């Protein structure tokens, strides 16, 4: 509801329609491949599994980033784009870090569980994604990969179920989650009552997003900090949107 309300509000403000889209390719193709080509063309170095521990600030300016292995990467500017649950310690040299840490803690996090069910028959869905109220989380969504991507059903029909606000489900075993989600489908889709699971995959994200509950919007910190060469980015910072990719993109534009 928050996402829809924001879309309507911004649409009226900018006289531009707001649409909801979804990728028709895998996420590597969508996000990674093109970015790596741009990085390579511009001489950008990407370091994998390099865990940052602290952003060094001296005399009001960024000097580098201290890594977990003790090495330090020199830098004259830093974009700190980490989830609120991972911000602790990184900004210790920033004067306003206590306020940012406190806000990050109060924003908390929301778990999400995604379950990919390969079934031996179609469910009879009418659209690419459908919301189910009264399921195992705050809201459960069913994504029909056949409608979304024109996927072949020669081997099985693929349905991806996403549970937002999976506070209880996140602690269950994969087998329990699969059984629970299949039961949910059978409650809403008559065709699922005799369906058999060919294969299943469960993806748990304990800290998928920050927790956008009533009264927390004012906690979200701005992207700019008191140090001109250090900015924050991420969906949890102050944007027009809730915990969405749109929020993350807007945070980057504002930083």
Lateral arrangement of strands in the main beta sheet: 6-7-8-5-9
The tally of beta strands, per DSSP, is 10
Main structural class = alpha+beta
Q: What is the chain-wise order of helices and strands? A: HHEEEEHEEEHEHEEH
Oligomeric state of shown chains: single chain
Q: What is the general shape?
A: elongated
Query: How far apart are the termini?
Result: 27 Å
**What fraction, in percent, of the residue positions are helical?**
25-40%
Treating each run of at least 4 consecutive H or I residues as one helix, how many helices? 6
Radius of gyration: 21 Å
Largest sheet: number of strands, sense, barrel closure: 5 strands, antiparallel
Report the mean per-residue pLDDT as an integer.
91
| Poorly predicted runs | none
Percent of residues in β-strands:
25-35%
Please tell me about this protein's structure:
The chain is of the alpha+beta class. The protein is 27% helix and 25% strand. It contains 6 helices and 10 strands, in the order H-H-E-E-E-E-H-E-E-E-H-E-H-E-E-H. It has helices at residues 2-14, 27-41, 97-107, 145-149, 174-188, 245-254; strands at residues 52-58, 61-67, 72-74, 78-80, 110-119, 129-132, 139-144, 157-164, 197-209, 230-232. The protein has a 5-stranded antiparallel β-sheet with strand order 6-7-8-5-9. A 3-stranded antiparallel β-sheet has the order 1-2-3, with no helix packed on it. A two-stranded parallel ribbon has the order 4-10. A hairpin with a 6-residue loop joins strand 6 and strand 7 (139-144). The mean pLDDT is 91.
SSE layout:
Elements: H1 2-14, H2 27-41, E1 52-58, E2 61-67, E3 72-74, E4 78-80, H3 97-107, E5 110-119, E6 129-132, E7 139-144, H4 145-149, E8 157-164, H5 174-188, E9 197-209, E10 230-232, H6 245-254
Parallel strand pairs: 4-10
Antiparallel strand pairs: 1-2, 2-3, 5-8, 5-9, 6-7, 7-8
